[in-house]
Amino acid sequence: MRGFIEKVEKNEHLHYEEMVEASRLMFNEATELQQIANFLIALSKKGETTNEIAALATVMKSFALKLNEPVGSYMDNCGTGGDGLNSFNISTTSAFVLAGAGATIVKHGNRKISSAAGSSDVLEALGIDSSIDIGSSMDLLAREGLTFLYAPNVHPRLKRIGLVRKQIGKPTIFNLIGPLTNPVALKSQYTGINRPNFTIEYATVLQMLGRERAIVVCGAEGMDEASLAGKSEFVLVDKGDLIPFTLTPEDVGLTYAPISAIQGGDAQENATIMRTVLQGNRSAYFDSVIFNAGVGFFANGMVSNIPEGVKLATDSILSGKALEKLEAVITYSNESRKKEVV
């Protein structure tokens, strides 16, 4: 590992094969945690490349548990996090909106690493058990067309890496690969990053990993979601093509709102915001969700344009279907917990 650290510290990029080897060393129990930390910090300072990201994602996915998911056409809408803007859990809320309108969602997520409340934190605040066993998680997917995969449950070798990431306390390449390492084979994907000048590169990684259709977004102020606070940069991956485009909230029939209008708090506060949105209360929180879910529907191929997607997202909430999906997942989680006790 020392040789790779030294090369990266010299501002030299690793070739794909080199990064595969370095990645395997990171997941090796014999590798010292401090060496892993030094490597991650050096990569972050240098700036990660498409080859480095794709190689690490491929190695990490190869070590993931085999889930034996039911046959289906699956989508993930998790973002990289790490934008430091303290927004509420937009993509987690959007997952219920997407599923409420018929998209089949397998959302990959984690606890907070560099944010106030991660996806798994807010789900637990809602009463959804993140420690649900894999069999039950796949049963939930078959029943409801929606499930949440807690990354440490499906990536057992992440435990030591998690300790290092908490020690570093800042975004690393592992933030970038979170959305790329869902163990389920995804047909489509909608993901956000906090690097406005990296959307094409990230879309290229998705292409390298075999996504048929996907959208990458970086919102105003580096938000890892489509933003109401200005212009968002997107790249559509469609059958091998990479198509950049931009959108403002006004372009999809929504109104401007500053980042401060969608800020969240701890897991319990964010759970309350999520419920308020899914109950149909109009606000900047609501508009952020329908904007992002609308892009998600377009990435999934369920609509022909994003304004249509925003309308479908609005209907999913106002019809009560998105909230019904939340309640169904909570009920299933409670029943699973009772079975475990018995």
UniProtKB/TrEMBL annotation:
Domain Glycosyl transferase family 3 N-terminal, chain residue ranges per copy: 4-64
Annotated EC: 2.4.2.18
Family matches, as Gene3D superfamilies: Nucleoside phosphorylase/phosphoribosyltransferase catalytic domain, Transferase, Pyrimidine Nucleoside Phosphorylase, Chain C
Catalyzed reactions: N-(5-phospho-beta-D-ribosyl)anthranilate + diphosphate = 5-phospho-alpha-D-ribose 1-diphosphate + anthranilate
Residues annotated as binding anthranilate 2: R165
Positions annotated to bind anthranilate 1: G79, N110
InterPro entries: Anthranilate_Pribosyl_Tfrase (IPR005940), Glycosyl_Trfase_fam3 (IPR000312), Glycosyl_Trfase_fam3_N_dom (IPR017459), Glycosyl_Trfase_fam3_N_dom_sf (IPR036320), Nuc_phospho_transferase (IPR035902)
Amino acids binding Mg(2+) 2: D224, E225
Cofactor note: Binds 2 magnesium ions per monomer.
Cofactor(s) the record lists: Mg(2+)
Superkingdom of this protein's organism: Bacteria
Pathway: Amino-acid biosynthesis; L-tryptophan biosynthesis; L-tryptophan from chorismate: step 2/5
First-level EC class: transferase
Binding site for 5-phospho-alpha-D-ribose 1-diphosphate: 79, 82-83, 87, 89-92, 107-115, 119
Pfam families reported in the protein's UniProt record: Glycos_trans_3N (PF02885), Glycos_transf_3 (PF00591)
Binding site for Mg(2+) 1: S91, E225
Record GO terms (molecular function): anthranilate phosphoribosyltransferase activity; magnesium ion binding
Classification via PANTHER family: ANTHRANILATE PHOSPHORIBOSYLTRANSFERASE
Subunit structure: Homodimer.
Role noted for this protein: Catalyzes the transfer of the phosphoribosyl group of 5-phosphorylribose-1-pyrophosphate (PRPP) to anthranilate to yield N-(5'-phosphoribosyl)-anthranilate (PRA).
Protein name: Anthranilate phosphoribosyltransferase
Organism the protein comes from: Psychrobacillus vulpis
